[in-house]
Write a structure and sequence with these properties.
The protein is of the alpha+beta class. The chain has three domains: 115 residues, 2-Layer Sandwich (Beta-Lactamase), CATH 3.30.450; 107 residues; 153 residues, Heat Shock Protein 90. The protein has ten helices and twelve strands. The strands form three sheets. It has a five-stranded antiparallel sheet with strand order 2-1-5-4-3. Strands 7-9-10-12-11 form a five-stranded mixed sheet, covered by helices on one side. It has a two-stranded antiparallel sheet with strand order 6-8. A hairpin with a 5-residue loop joins strand 1 and strand 2. The chain starts with a helix and ends in a 9-residue tail after the last strand.
Length: 384
């Protein structure tokens, strides 16, 4: 019969699991064939090697190794601890470690009896599953954001459609009285000599006629916004439109103690726009800035590639994020008792969107508001 020691050695070497033993100095005393195969070492090469060298070469890996080694030296069992080890060729090998301390005759810890179970395939599958779950969560989040954006666009379209119908009705109702005022003022101006009107009255009538004509332009823009009248666009100097809007608004700003300043870039490209519509947008922006209690309002323009960016900045009351998020909603206003209709910014947003542009707002309560309007270059030569 074979010697007991030889039988144990044969059983140890032929075990299907990786088995090894380390001493209290941390060096490997015994390692079977499967342990060498698992870590990619030739037979016998693990013997005498510090076990810490076999752990993952990271701060976390080395720290984990020291913790487990201290548990062994203190005579504590290790059951099913999963850790990353490093094979001879640099491969990452995940194992489940079970280890028991072996004591000498005095009861002191002398060595360990350890078993390693290869769990690399399971860990890789878990990593793949985790990455797949993360990708899925990211895709769901992105799809949710896209869906929310699409729903918001749909709500905006529905609001604008309702607004267009209402705006068309209002435009129709006020068009006739404005026309009558224009006709009467024009007749009075023609008969100024017969009526004995002085120069001051002539100038007043001219202003009435000019403002009635402007009202007609606004009504036409509203009808175009409602889709009842085609929008005629032409190559236009945006700076000229801004200056015209400032001229129309300067007296209103002066009455409210606001100063208008403009810094217009001289090299802007002409844009294919409806001048009356874009002028209406700037008038709305400037009037809103005045009515926000501003003392200084600055209008800037600059080139953006083939397009134009215009910025209206004020030092007025500003607004909260909640108010800013609803600024372009039809009929939303914070000046309901002050005569605000809540239509100006919604119409402005619709006009800018119809020009393939953007209108953005940034505001801080107590510090003012900045509204940025961007219009693209002249890429469509035909009227729409």
């Amino acid at each position: 019969m074979p010697e007991p020691h030889e039988s144990y050695k044969s059983f140890f070497d032929d075990a299907p699991l990786a088995c090894f033993s380390i001493g209290v100095d941390g060096r490997i005393l015994l390692a079977n064939r499967r342990a060498h195969e698992l870590l990619g070492y030739p037979p016998g090469e693990l013997i005498g090697r510090p076990v810490i060298e076999l752990y993952a070469d990271t701060d976390a890996g080395k720290r984990r190794a020291r913790q487990l080694f201290e548990r062994f030296r203190n005579g504590r069992r290790i059951d099913g601890e999963e850790l990353e080890m490093r094979a001879r060729d640099g491969r990452s090998v995940w194992v489940s470690l079970a280890s028991s301390p072996i004591r000498d005759r005095r009861g002191d810890v002398a060595r360990s009896r350890s078993i390693l179970v290869d769990v690399t395939a399971r860990k890789r599958a878990e990593d793949d599953l985790r990455r797949a779950r993360q990708r899925l969560e990211e895709q769901v989040a992105e799809r949710t954001r896209e869906l929310a954006a699409s729903n918001e666009k749909l709500r905006q379209v529905e609001r604008l459609a309702s607004l267009g119908t209402l705006a068309a009705g209002i435009a129709h109702e006020i068009n006739n009285p404005i026309g009558a005022i224009l006709l009467l003022a024009a007749n009075a101006l023609e008969s100024a000599g017969e009526l004995g009107l002085d120069e001051r009255c002539r100038q007043t009538l001219e202003k009435i006629i000019a403002n009635c004509q402007r009202c007609h332009e606004i009504i036409r823009a509203v009808r175009q916004f409602a889709g009842l009248e085609p929008s005629t666009r032409e190559l236009t100097d945006v700076n000229a439109v801004i200056r015209s809007a400032i001229d129309w608004t300067r007296g209103y700003a002066r009455q409210h103690g606001a100063e208008l300043r403009c810094e217009l870039a001289p090299d802007l490209p002409p844009l294919l726009i409806s001048p009356a519509e874009i002028e209406q947008v700037f008038v709305n922006l400037l009037r809103n800035a005045v009515e926000a209690g501003s003392s200084r309002i600055r209008v800037r323009s600059e080139r953006t590639g083939g397009g134009v960016r215009a910025v209206v900045e004020d030092d007025g009351r500003g607004m909260s994020d909640e108010v800013a998020s609803r600024l372009f909603d039809p009929f939303f206003t914070t000046r309901r008792h002050g005569g605000g209709s809540g239509l100006g910014m919604s119409i402005s947003h619709g006009i800018v969107s119809a020009h393939d542009g953007t209108l953005r707002v940034a505001s801080t309560p107590g510090r003012g508001t900045t509204i940025t309007l961007e219009l693209p270059g002249a890429t469509r030569p035909e009227p729409t």
